[in-house]
Amino acid sequence: MGRVICIANQKGGVGKTTTALNLATLLAIAGQRTLLVDLDPQCNATSGLGHKATARHALIDSKPLRESFVTTAQANLSLLPGARSFQDVDALAHSTDSQSSMLATHLAGSLGSFDTVLIDCPPSLGQLTRTALASASEVLMPIQCEFFAMEGLTQMIDVIRQVMQRPNSRLSFGGILLTMYDASLELTTEVDREVREFFGEIVFQTVIPRDVAVSEAPSHGCSVVEYAPRSRGARAFVELCLEVMDRE
Questions:
Q1: Residues 6+ apart with CB under 8 A from 26
Q2: In the sheet that 3-7 helps form, which strands lie side by side, from edge to edge?
Q3: Is the pTM of this model over 0.85?
Q4: Which of 104, 139, 164, 191 is the most buried (most CB within 10 A)?
Q5: What is the pLDDT of residues 179-226, one digit of tens each?
Q6: Taking the domains of the chain in order of start, what are their residue ranges?
Q7: EC number(s) of the enzyme (predicted)?
C-alpha cells in the first residue's frame, strides 16, 4: 500500500481541508495516483473539488468502496465524497471498537491502487478521527498561528500517541504545518518560534500565508494552483508538496 496521510486537527478553521485539497491536487499534478477521502461531515473537500455530497457515506454503504470513487477534472486525482446524512455521521462518529476496526479494514482494502491517499478528518478528537489515524501511515497537522495553537497541538498529539501504540499500527508523524501565516504580526512570529523550538524538524519549513486566492479557489471548485497559479498561496502549496514528497 502507498502512503495514507491523515490531515487532522481537532480545531476548526485552521486550514485543514484547504491543505488536503491543494496537496492532493499537486500530488496528482506531480504524477502520483492520488485519492482524497472526505470524512468531514461539512463535506468542504467534496464541494471544493466541484462535486456534491452523497446521500449515504461510502464507508457506511454496503457496496465496495472503490465503486464510490469519483474522477475529478484533474488527471490522477480521485475523490471519495463526503455525506451530510445525520444518520451516517452519527454512525461513523460513534462507532464501537469493532466497527472502527471494520472501517479501518474497509479503507485499507480499497486504497492499494493509489500512490497517495489523503484523508480530510473532521475537526474532532472523536472516534472517526481515531479510525482515520488507525488507517493511516502518517499524520499531517495544520495549525493556525494563534494564541491557543500549542494547547491544541498537545491534545492532538496525545491521541496520535495512543493510536501509534496500538498493535500493528504503522502511523508516524508526517509533520506540522503553520497556516494563515502573517509575518507582519508579532503573534505569528512568536508561535512560529515556539513550535519550531519544541518540535524541531517535524515542522515543515514551508508556511501557508494568508492569501485571498486560497480562500476564493474552493468556490470555483478547484485548487488555488488552478485558480491563481501565480499567487503567494499557490507557490506555498507547491513548496509544501515538494517537502511532503521529499519526506516519503
A1: 223, 225, 237, 238, 240, 241
A2: 70-71, 77-80, 34-38, 116-120, 3-7, 138-144, 172-181, 203-209
A3: yes
A4: 139
A5: 999 999 999 999 999 999 989 999 999 999 999 999 999 999 999 999
A6: 3-246
A7: 3.6.-.-
